[in-house]
Amino acid sequence: MPRRKKADTRGVDGAWERSPPAPHRRRLRVYALDPATALEIDREPLHAVVLEVPWESATGGRGSLSPGPVGEMVEVVDVDPASGRFYPPIDLDHPHLLAQDGAAPSTGDPHFHQQMVYAVAMRTIGVFEQALGRRALWADHVTVDAEGRTRRFFVRRLRIYPHAFRAPNAYYSPSKVALLFGYFPAGEEAEGPGVAPGGMVYTCLSYDIVAHETTHALLDGLHPRYSEPSNPDMLAFHEGFADAVAIFQHFTHREVLEHVIERSGGQLDQENDLALLAVEMGRALGHGEALRTALQPSRGRRRRLDDVEEAHDRGAILVAALFDAFLAIYRQRTDDLLRIAGVGRTGSSGELHRDLVRRLADEAQKAAGHLLRMAIRALDYCPPVDLDFGDYLRALITADRDLVPIDERNYRLALIEAFRGRGILARGVRNLSEEALVWRAPRTDLDPARTARIFDALESAKVKTSVEELAALWTLTNDRATIWKAARALRAKLHGVLTRLPAGWAREELHLVLDEVEQRGIHTDERGRPSTEVHSARVARRRGPGDQSTVDLVVEITQRRRGYDDPARQRAVDREADAAAGEGVPRADFLVRSGCTLLIDLVRREVRYAIRSRFPIDDDRCLATPRATRGAELERDLRADARAAPFAGRFAPIDELGSGEPFALLHASTRISEAYAGTDSEADSEADSEATPRVPRRAEDPR
Fold first, then answer.
1. How large is the average pLDDT for residues 617-624?
2. pLDDT above 70 as % of the chain
3. Is position 649 within any domain?
4. Is the pLDDT reported for residue 686 higher than 80?
5. pTM for the full model?
6. Half-sphere exposure of residue 619: CA atoms within 13 angstroms, side-chain side
């Protein structure tokens, strides 16, 4: 009997041989807010949401994903020093997890804890990258060798420790380039649904806290000097900006947004879940409904910036200003919908129609999303050091005006009015009009021939090639290590260009000192001129609503000076009073930095903006504010506080690289310590004494 031929199953063009394409996104379940709200029956839509994050897998995608998870941008390391355990890493590529959007939300499953921090961190990174139009880079790993030379290394991944220590805190560590999350038993004063005295609270399970800490890391990668408290707004900006990013991400959860709008009758200016931050932690510490809120209390005078001093309180004013602007825009976008539906601003006598809820959610989501992108894009328009909230307002207005010249929805007007209402004013402007707030270009008419040197040098073969290479590389798809190396090479070339600018013009227009100085406290080069650091060169690529796009080269230049708490000591050092005694320059109590950010349009051969710090580095006025606002008192109080035991050994003395762990100090404020004090049993105290996270430091040559 003849053998039957096998059927030809190759298909057209051999398609049967090809593997299915890798998906673009991975779906992972997370708590919408935190475990406390997931235990309330009337908040059922707030229990959990599914996040879509970039697909990372060994089988293809943006990068490989190993158990941990360990991907292209983050690495979860689940070591628990307080209990002496290392939890096995989750494998998100396991078929069972792929089939059900990851592990189910659970407070008792370390695998879900790992999944939660990974998903929220990746979502926050994605928000930043889409707003800036480029890949995000983490802060460099910095070391000092035996000869005192500073060395910088590329950091591929942000490390995340979900159970780093046992204490009511979570923070970003610049020295480790890592996020460390604590866990703790709720105190006797714990109140509210979902929490009970003695119940364990995991900060890694709060969407807001994870997004907040990830934002600290992203901001530090972009502006590494913003962790230095040179004025009252510096650390407050870190806190307020991180809170704002976390809160505005609430509006990306569609089920949560529609639930809140339906319950509130569309009135988002009343207390609601969208405006609350860290609900479970706030309840566990006895702070009320949440740790912080973006809404102003319904009674009493609106809090303004000059009413508060502490960093978190000042940061809350920034959040309130941004949320005030959102509410004004939301009202403008939805007034017609409510009028058509016969619903007044005081609320509805009945439930809103489902179609109206969806339309209100559409408008709220658009307004919140655009404000969040504005807030992130403005980071490229800020001075490199010594930022205050007024500077940030100017950055917001300038960045948005560049991209959207005609502000039909009045976003910029809403921001100006909201900041003014919170007492946030810009220095050096005659009024708060949009035209007055926009940063200006440096004058070149005084010596156009000499100041044109910057463009002649930028168009030299070596520099121009480096600029073009970086512009081509720094997109949303290329390798981050390659981008980092190209940016470092360009910074070195730009240093030679910028230090040869006309000294008088540079001092007047850029607040850079390029000639010799007499003050011995100023860091100088071998020729006696202030040492100059080009600490950032990046590409700002943005696309507006009408498909208009802008591409600028952003260059940040800084100089530094030793500062002393005693003004007499400062004068003695600067006048070389100690030189006769054979002493070197005394160790500084703090560092002062000055400089500027340049936004350069290479096509039109112009510096579009020169965003300067307040004073040049040789102006003694630059010392007054850092001296007055230095965080020595907070650090002394925290060292003396018995509740600071979990943080012992992490506070390096202030040195040339800055203080050891500024965010650990900031987050472990006396307000939280007092709320937590008195709740310990003997067993708790014993456990806390071992709570210092002994997490590994980065090797000198990171992966």
1. 92
2. 80
3. no
4. no
5. 0.88
6. 15
With cut-offs at 50, 70 and 90, classify the pLDDT of residue 283. confident
Looking at residue 181, its pLDDT comes to 96
Between 447 and 499, where is the model more confident? 499
Q: Which helix (H) or strand (E) holds 319?
A: helix 311-340
Please name the residues in contact with 73: beta carbons below 8 A apart, sequence gap of 6 or more: 63, 121, 122, 125, 136, 157, 158
What is the span of the domain harbouring residue 417?
Answer: 25-436
Q: What is the mean pLDDT of residues 163-169?
A: 93
Q: How far is residue 545's CA from residue 547's CA, in Å, rounded to a whole number?
A: 5
141 lies in the same domain as 223? yes
Q: What is the pLDDT of residues 195-227, one digit of tens each?
A: 888 889 999 999 999 999 999 999 999 999 999
Considering the domain architecture, whether residues 431 and 505 belong to the same structural domain is answered as no
Q: What is the pLDDT of residues 113-133, one digit of tens each?
A: 999 999 999 999 999 999 998
Helices then strands (H, E): number in the chain? Answer: 22, 17
Which residue's structure tokens are 């650990």? 664
CA 665 – CA 174 distance, rounded (Å): 12
d(CA 317, CA 325): 12
Question: 199 and 191 in contact (C-beta within 8 Å)?
Answer: no
* Cβ(662)–Cβ(225) below 8 Å: no
The answer to whether residues 643 and 673 touch, using CB atoms and an 8 Å cutoff, is: yes
* 463 and 408 together in one domain: no
The DSSP bridge partners found for residue 650 are: none
Q: For the chain, what's the residue count? A: 703
Give the CA radius of gyration of the chain.
27
Over the stretch 640-674, which tens digit does the pLDDT of each residue have? 444 444 433 333 333 333 346 777 767 665 344 44
Amino acid at 650: R
Phi, psi at residue 238, to the nearest 5°?
-55, -45
For residue 491, the surrounding DSSP H or E stretch is: helix 480-498
672 lies in a domain?
Answer: no
Whether residues 96 and 236 fall in one domain: yes
One-character DSSP codes across 345-385 = TTB-SSPPPHHHHHHHHHHHHHHHHHHHHHHHHGGGGS-SS
Contact criterion met (CB below 8 Å) for 329 and 409? yes
Contact status, residue 330 vs residue 364, Cβ threshold 8 Å: yes
